[in-house]
Specification:
Order of helices and strands: EHEHEHEHHHHHEHHHHHEH
Largest sheet: 6 strands, parallel
Helix content: 40-55%
Oligomer: single chain
Distance between the termini: 5 Å
Radius of gyration: 19 Å
CATH superfamily of the largest domain: P-loop containing nucleotide triphosphate hydrolases
Shape: globular
CATH topology of the largest domain: Rossmann fold
Low-confidence stretches: none
């Protein structure tokens, strides 16, 4: 069975750096599992790999769609499967890297196949527009408390879908059992762990670096390119952009916006770890203790090419 290496972890844990170094060592190519790096022009705010990293190692599923288009876990799995096969045809090893737990889980375990309902979707969309995301999250908490605790509460598409599934099936999304299937690949799943205080320091430093690199200018350019950007669900619900939009709209001071980005990113990292800690298949690697060497040692005997 073909091997696919997965490197996951919370934001700012150093996944990209480790993945690029690993790809060089084992002749690999990287598939991004990041629900925001798929969007064009959202570069600084999503902390996309540096140009040198993109030049050094082939990256896939970055900059593939406009920031006005919704992109589902199903879309990701379809494209990721295709890229994995292409990479193997080139006699290389696929390395899936990212922090979007839903994408990674969908690739490894498959998705629950539940049809959507246009009528319910329309009702929920109207409810979201009228009541706002906070009330939608409260509704999900009533319908499915477990899912509400781990879902990306700032992502209206996922929140609406979770509510829709509850209404369609009369079951909690968290209780639905996925269809068992034979794994398509030999997944070696590694997670980068960090001391919480150290991770938070890295997050704060990263946000400061984003501001220095031009996050405010990038956000302003996006709001100009997309006239309705301040109402755009993707931008408005992406940490970094949503806070800067509020600053540009005069609702926050620059300092307040920066502090809020740091706070929201820390909260997001905590939610990511809550999600990942449920998966006992993940082999955790200390991000501060030569993670590349440890991943190489643990994966060397388990890599298969056919």
């Amino acid at each position: 069975m073909k091997t696919v290496i997965v490197i996951l972890g919370p934001t700012a844990s150093g996944k990209t750096d480790v993945a690029v170094k690993l790809a060089k060592k084992i002749n690999g190519e990287i598939i991004s599992a990041d629900s925001r790096q798929i969007y064009k022009y959202m570069d600084i705010g999503t902390n996309k790999p540096e140009k040198l990293q993109l030049k050094t190692v082939s990256h896939h599923l970055i900059n593939i769609t406009e920031p006005t288009e919704n992109f589902s876990a199903g879309n990701f799995v379809k494209l990721a499967d295709k890229k994995i096969e292409e990479i193997y045809r080139r006699k290389k090893i696929p390395i899936v890297v990212g922090g979007t737990g839903l994408y990674i889980k969908a690739l490894i375990d498959g998705l629950i196949k539940i049809p959507s309902n246009k009528e319910i979707r329309t009702i929920l969309t109207d409810y979201y527009k009228k009541m706002g995301l906070i009330h939608c999250n409260k509704l999900l908490e009533k319908l499915d408390p477990k899912t509400a605790k781990v879902i990306d509460e700032k992502n209206p598409v996922r929140v609406m879908r979770a509510i829709e599934i509850c209404l369609l099936t009369d079951k909690k999304f968290s209780e639905l059992k996925k269809e068992t299937k034979k794994p398509k690949y030999n997944f070696l799943i590694f997670g980068l762990s960090s001391d919480r205080n150290e991770l938070y320091k890295k997050i704060n430093t990263r946000v400061d670096r984003m501001i220095t690199k031009g996050l405010i200018k990038e956000t302003a350019k996006l709001t100009k390119k997309y006239a309705y950007a301040s109402k755009n669900a993707i931008l408005q619900n992406t940490i970094g952009y949503s806070e800067i939009i509020k600053f540009l709209d005069g609702k926050l001071s620059k300092k307040e916006a920066i502090d809020l980005i740091k706070q929201n990113t820390r909260h997001y990292a905590k939610r990511q770890m809550t999600w990942f800690n449920k998966d006992k298949r993940i082999v955790w690697i200390d991000s501060e203790n030569d993670p590349l060497k440890n991943i190489l040692v643990k994966s060397f005997k388990n890599i298969t090419m056919d």
